Amino acid sequence: MDSERREHILRAVVEVIEKLRRQLEAGLDRQVIDFDLLPTDLDAIATSLGLKVKIENELDGSTALASETLGAVYRKRKEIQIAGGKKHTRQRFTLAHELGHYLLHDQLVSYREVLAPSEAVDATNRPAIEQEADFFAVELLMPARSVGRVFQQYFGGPINGTVASDDVAHFLSQGHRPFSASEIVRMGKHERARLFARIATYAGVQFKPICEVFDVSMEAMAIRLENLGLVK
Ligand SMILES: [Zn+2]
Questions:
Q1: Domains and CATH numbers, the chain
Q2: Tens place of pLDDT for every residue, the chain, 232 residues?
Q3: From the CA of 91, how far away is ligand 1's center (Å)?
Q4: How far does the centroid of ligand 1 lie from the alpha carbon of residue 21, in Å?
Q5: CA atoms of 228 and 232, how far apart (whole Å)
Q6: Alpha helices in the chain (DSSP H)
């Protein structure tokens, strides 16, 4: 994906989020802040685009591929289908991914997802349109600015776990199991990101885990925290 295409997709994400913000503001007598928009309301976005979202156990009446199919876009009848029976966060990611196809890929008229949309942004061996839809989904579900703000609020700033820190170990240990500074270094970046994605207490303060604030899987949030450089 070249930088021009990335910019195009980021603009598409900003557009739908700004539309949501305006809709929300119309019903409130105050200014809407980023936090009000979390987790991203995908159903409201679909509705504002005139799209129906159906959770189906048999996509389009066919059972043959149902177990491997996660979602589908039917442009002419303005419908997105999402396979039922999957984890809530998986279905949510798929819906965000299909919204990406709908907004970015006019050429997909009637399109069924046979490959699993990846929650990982670095699955570089996937076709270009799949990578674009994944990129759209990640940006829509976990906007960089909002993730940065919540992370800052919870943890005071990016965590560099490659250097032993008694403070971080102490803060993690309050209300949690005890951690030693060297244990945090040893667990490696991805495990650290998984920890910060799911913990509900830091420095003695309780909060909603960041993965739940954004209503995404712990794994998807961990990858996002790594890619945004918030957990090193
Ligand atoms: Zn796709």
A1: 3-141 (1.10.10), 144-227 (no CATH)
A2: 899 999 999 999 999 999 999 988 888 888 888 888 999 999 999 999 999 999 887 655 555 445 567 889 999 999 999 988 888 999 999 999 999 999 999 888 888 877 555 544 455 677 889 999 999 999 999 999 999 999 999 999 999 999 999 999 999 888 768 999 999 999 999 999 999 999 999 998 999 999 999 999 999 999 999 999 999 9
A3: 13
A4: 26
A5: 9
A6: 3-26, 42-48, 88-104, 128-141, 144-155, 166-173, 181-186, 189-198, 210-213, 218-227
Looking at the whole model, is its pTM more than 0.85? yes
Task: Please answer whether residues 70 and 116 qualify as being in contact, where contact means their C-beta atoms are separated by less than 8 angstroms.
Answer: yes
Distance (Å) from CA 97 to ligand 1 centroid: 6
